[in-house]
Amino acid sequence: MKNRLPPTWSKHLRTAQGSASKPPVHGPTDDQLLSQAVAFRERGQFREAEQLCVKILQSNPHHPQALYLAGTLAFDSDQTDLAILYLKKAVKEKPKDPYFNLALAASYEKAVDYELAVQSFHRALAAKPNLVGALCGLGMTHVKAGNAELALPFFEKALRIDADFKGVRIGYADALTSLGRMDEAAAYLKEAIARRAYMPAAYRALAASIKFTREPPELKSIIAELANPALAPVEATHLHQAAGKILNDLKRYDEAVDHFQQAKQVAGRDYDVAAYRRWVDAMIDLFSPLLLKAKTGLGDPSEVPVFILGMPRSGTTLTEQICASHPSVHGAGEISKMWHLAMSIGLSRASVGAFGESVLAMGKDRSRALAADYLRFVRKSSPGALRVTDKLTHNFELIGLIALILPNARIINCRRDPIDNCVSCFTTPDFNDKHGYNADLAKLGLYYREYDRLMRHWNAILPGRIHEVRYEAMIADPEVETRRLIDRLGLPWDDACLRFNESNRTVATPSRWQVRQPVYKTSVKRWKNYEHKIQPLIEALGDLAEV
Questions:
Q1: Helix, strand or coil, per DSSP, at residue 505
Q2: Cα dihedral: 222, 227, 232, 234 (round 10)
Q3: Contact 455, 507 (CB under 8 A)
Q4: What is the pLDDT of residues 324-355, one digit of tens each?
Q5: Model pTM above 0.70
Q6: Closest CA relative to residue 349, chosen from 265, 289, 435, 474
Q7: Cα–Cα distances in Å, from 166 out to 2, 150, 169, 198, 446?
Q8: By the 8 A CB rule, do 178 and 508 touch?
Q9: Which tens digit of pLDDT belongs to each residue from 351-381?
Q10: How many CB atoms lie within 10 A of CB 196?
Q11: DSSP code of 502?
Q12: Can you state the angle between helices 80-93 and 337-344, rounded to 10 degrees?
C-alpha cells in the first residue's frame, strides 16, 4: 500500500483558495482548476490532478495551493525530491501555513533528512501549536533519527489534545519499544486495541513487541477479527501478521506459516524477478575491473563511513549494535542517502542506463561532490564520531558507487544461512512494499540468489575490501568475531562491545527486541521447524541451500 498523505491535507485547500487566482481570460479560473484537481485527487485520479496543477503553474508559477497540491501528489507517487521542490516553493509563498509546513516536513522525513524534517515540523507547530498530526510526525521523526527519548513528550501532548487521533498510541508505543520499554509500549497498544483505534496495526505492533510463551487472549480476538468480511486488505494483512508472529512464538509453526502466507496473499504484492536479474546483470557489466582501475583516485578519503549491509534479517542490526557500543562509533541506523545520491545521477529500479553514463563520465570533481554530500549528511547525526554506521541493508546494490566516491569507507557484509535468512524475511511482519520479493517463497529464494551473485561480483573486483560477518560464527563465538569486527573498523578494543544488549540507544528496526537480549542460538537452523512448508524456497535457492 502506498504511503499517501492523509486526504484531509488536500481538503485544507478548499478553505485556502482564492488568494492567488488570476481573473479569467479564456476558460476556467485558477481556483476552478484547483477545485477540479482536488476532486480528482480525492477520487484517486492522481495523473489528472497533476496535469491540472501543472496547467495552473504554467500560467501562475507562484500559486501556493497548486504548489502544495503538486507536492503532495509527488509525495504520494514516491517522487520525494520533486515533492520537496514543490513544497519548499509553497512554504516560501505562505511561510506560516501549518499544513504546507507539515507536508514539507513529511517529505523531508521520507527523504531521511531528519534535521530539516524536525525544523519544518516545528514551523508547523509554531503556526498551529495543537496540530496533532505535526506532534505525531515530529515524534516519529525523532524515533527514526535515533532520538526516541525526544519523541515521548510530543506523543504525550498529542494524547492530551486528542486521545482518539489515529495512530497516536501506536506511535508512542513505537518510541517506547525503540527504547526497550516493552511493557509500557504493550500497555498503550492494548489501550489502542480496546478503543479500536487503528486496531489491526496495534495488534501487529503488540505481537512484534512481545515474546509469547503461552497463548494470549489476543490470539482469539485476532482470529475473530479476521472473520470480518468488511476488513480492508491492509487490515487483514496486519492481523494475519500478528497471528503468525504469536503462533510462531508458541512453536505452532504450521499454523504460523499459513497466516504469514495469507498475509502475503491479502497484501497482493508481486515481484518481477526476471527484471531484477537484468538489473543485476547491468550493474555487473557496468562495474568492471577496468572501470575501477580507470577511476582510481576519485572521491573523498574519509574513513568515517561504515556501511553495514546484506540481505534483511541477516544480522545487520546486531552488527550495528555491537559497533555502536564502541565509544568512537555512532550508529546512524538505516540511511537512504546513498540511494538518493545514486538516483540523483540517474539510477532507478527500472534501469541502470542513465546512471551508467554518469558513472562512466564521472571525474574527480563530481565524485568528491557526491562524497561531500554524503559525509555532510551523516555528520549531522554525530559530528565528532570517528566512525558512523549506515545500516541500510540494500546498499549491497551500491557497493560499486561506494567504492568510487568513498574509497576508504568500511564495508561490512552480513551473511546468514540462506534458508534461515529467507525464512526470517518471510515471517517478519514489518516489511513494506519496497520488499516485494518477500511476497512469495520461491521468488524470495530467487532474489537471494541475485543478492549472492552480486556480492560475489563485488568481492571479485574489490578483493579484501569487504569484511564478512557470518551470523552463525558471531553466535558461536561472539568475542572472537567481535574483536575481528572492531579491528576491521581500525579502532582499539573496548569491552563495551560485548555488552551491546545493555546499550540504551534507539533501535528502530524489526530486530529491536532481539538486540536487547544476550546472544542466543535458537535462531540458528530455525528453518527446520518449517521444513515441509518451505520446499518452494529450498528449491529456488538451489545449490545455495545449506540443508
A1: coil
A2: 40
A3: no
A4: 999 999 999 888 899 989 999 999 988 999 99
A5: yes
A6: 435
A7: 17, 21, 8, 6, 38
A8: yes
A9: 999 999 999 999 999 999 999 999 999 998 8
A10: 11
A11: G
A12: 90
Residues forming beta bridges with residue 387, ordered by sequence position? 329
pLDDT(87) > 80:
yes
Residue 54: pLDDT band (50, 70, 90) is very high
The conformation of residue 6, written as its DSSP 8-state character, comes to P
Q: How many other C-beta atoms are found inside a 10 Å radius of the C-beta of residue 70?
A: 26
Parse the chain into domains and list their residue ranges: 7-204+214-222, 223-268, 273-544
Q: What is the pLDDT of residue 1?
A: 37
Cβ 176 vs Cβ 207: under 8 Å: no
Question: What is the residue-wise DSSP string for 230-294?
Answer: T--HHHHHHHHHHHHHHHHHTT-HHHHHHHHHHHHHHHT----HHHHHHHHHHHHHHS-HHHHHH
CB 403, CB 462: distance < 8 Å: yes
Mean of the per-residue pLDDT values of the chain: 90
Alpha-carbon span 52 to 58, nearest angstrom: 10
Task: Give the span between the Cα atoms of 368 and 483, in whole angstroms.
Answer: 32
Cell numbers describing residue 129: 501549536
Q: In the Cβ-directed half-sphere of 279, how many Cα atoms lie within 13 Å? A: 17
- Topology, domain 7-204+214-222: 1.25.40
In the structure grid, which three cell numbers stand for residue 356, read together?
A: 551508467
Cell of 70: 503538486
CATH number of 273-544: 3.40.50.300
101, 94 in Cβ contact below 8 A? no
Domains 7-204+214-222 and 273-544 share a fold: no
Buried-exposed string 498-514: b where 16+ CB fall within 10 A, e elsewhere: bebbebebbbbbbbbeb
- Torsion sign over Cα 394, 396, 401, 406: positive
Write out the three cell numbers for 67: 504548489
Indicate the helix (H) or strand (E) that contains 412: strand 410-415
Q: Give the pairing of strands 466-470 and 387-390.
A: unpaired
Instruction: State how far the Cα of 470 lies from the Cα of 374, in Å rounded to an integer.
Output: 28
Helix ranges (H only) for 145-252 are 148-161, 168-178, 182-194, 199-209, 217-226, 233-249
User: Length of the chain in residues, anyone?
Assistant: 547
Backbone phi and psi for residue 389, each to the nearest 5 degrees, phi listed first: -90, 140
Q: Nine-digit cell at 156?
A: 504525550
Q: Which residues contact 64 (CB under 8 A, 6 or more apart)?
A: 16, 19, 20, 90, 93, 94, 97, 100
**417 neighbors 526 (Cβ within 8 angstroms):** no
What are 467's strand-pairing partners? 412
In this prediction, residues 195-201 reach a mean pLDDT of 89
DSSP symbol at 390: E
Separation of CA 174 from chain center: 15
Query: Which pLDDT value is given to residue 20?
Result: 45
Phi, psi dihedral angles at 306 (to 5 degrees): -130, 115
Sequence-ordered list of residues with C-beta below 8 angstroms from that of 32, at least 6 positions apart, any chain: none
Rounded to 5 degrees, φ, ψ at 146 are 85, 20
